[in-house]
Amino acid sequence: MPTIHVLNGPNLNLLGIREPAIYGSVTLAAIESALRAKAGTRGVDLTFRQSNHEGDLVQWIQDAGLAGEAVILNAGAYTHTSIAIHDAIKGSGARVVEVHLSNVHARESFRHHSHISAVAAGVIVGFGPLSYELALEALLSGAAQQKS
Ligand code: CA2
């Protein structure tokens, strides 16, 4: 059974608990459940993880890429700062779909640039929890083929 890794960056553990006006009231655990249900019907094994530490994300991306397994990545604020995550995607050849809950382009200018987009197969922003499901659909459909 193919494995897809869903990786979540800093502060996403607060989803549904704080700032509902921006990020909504759905928790990360609820996003995981919905995604697992969808993946289960499509014969895909999911890992779903969150970390507030950049190095964890770098390691998980490397592991997935070197194993030839795809990644759905919401790197949180590291999206806008992390050359290490960019390098991990590029260096391991990970096939990554970048996702964001909010429309980062309609927010502060420091959220407009992503270090991940240039090495991602595609980017889905602004659809709340549905962003993750659209990313899964893109990977399952074969649309997200491009590797970094
Ligand atoms: O929209 C997204 O998915 C983001 O990746 C979320 C990040 C933000 O830094 C990116 O620019 C866009 C922030 C995640 C923090 O999530 C929170 C949730 C509830 C309360 C506080 C933070």
Strand order of the largest sheet: 2-1-3-4-5
Provide the residue-averaged pLDDT.
95
Main sheet attributes: strand count, strand direction, barrel closure = 5 strands, parallel
Tell me which CATH architecture applies here: 3-Layer(aba) Sandwich
H/E element order: EHHEHEHEEH
Number of structural units classed as domains: 1
Description:
- It is a single chain.
- The protein has a single domain (3-141), classed as 3-Layer(aba) Sandwich (Rossmann fold).
- The chain is 36% helix and 18% strand.
- The chain contains five helices and five strands.
- The protein has helices at 20-23, 28-41, 54-66, 83-92, 130-141; strands at residues 3-8, 45-50, 70-74, 96-100, 122-125.
- Strands 2-1-3-4-5 form a five-stranded parallel sheet, with helices on both faces.
- Strand 3 (70-74), helix 4 and strand 4 (96-100) form a beta-alpha-beta unit.
- Helix 3 (54-66) runs parallel beside helix 4 (83-92).
- The longest helix has 14 residues, at 28-41.
- It is globular, with a radius of gyration of 14 Å.
- The model has no long low-confidence stretch (mean pLDDT 95).
- It binds ligand CA2.
Care to give the gist of this entry?
This protein has helices at residues 20-23, 28-41, 54-66, 83-92, 130-141, and strands at 3-8, 45-50, 70-74, 96-100, 122-125. By secondary structure, it is of the alpha/beta class.
